[in-house]
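Recap from last week: sequence in, structure out.
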Amino acid sequence: MNRRRSRCLLFFALAAMGLHAAPPRAAEPNFMPDQSKLPVPPPKGATVLLDEKGKHMFLSMAGEKIDWPVEDGVIVSTPRRNQNHIVSRLHFKDADIHAEFLLPEKGPGNSGVYIHGNYEIQILNSFGKEKITQEDAGALYGFAPPLENACRKTGEWQVFDIRYRAPRRDATGKIIESGTVTVWFNGKKVQDGTQFGEPKSVFHPFRFGNTPYLDKIRDQQRKTMTGPLFLQDHGNPVKFRNVWVLPADELAFVYEPGEK
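Predicted structure tokens:
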């Protein structure tokens, strides 16, 4: 499918669902998002995965309707053996990603933003923790701890802005250029061009709780390095709102398994 047709299909698919999007544009070279006031409105060119009215672009890991409750623009993780993640219908390669979340009053608040289902920006109640690790909020799980502890206490909305650049592979599937990620978390830069290669976690969606729907996604993702955004179920009722993706290229599209 050519790029022009992909972009047209994306526009009309979003319009049919009542969601809005404009043709993607290149991300700004200086990445310093304003997180001073929440919620942050999506910029021109962003595709909204969850809007203020609760309209969303997520499916279950089986490619079916999600069972996470959605009310007043807020979606709540529904635990099921740490395998009840939700996956976006939008697929992209390089992008800026925005997600706002609220930790539960009780429990560790474990969740995450899984980019392409392989790389997790960790969500956890790390408020007040002095020594932070690769398992704390703002970490690139399995690769790098956050540069500092930016986690707020429970009861306060928190925000990630993530600049993601996918790894590049050769024709054999070998990574020839590492991916990078920069993350702003509640006004603080917690990842700064952090490099990563092959996925490390044994618990990411393509390895733990995999489905035939994800098999199809994994196969096309391996070839193109385009993929979806997952919001993670890790046994805690973490709330999300205002989730959007700003593609950095013209490769984003709404995924339909039959087309690949």
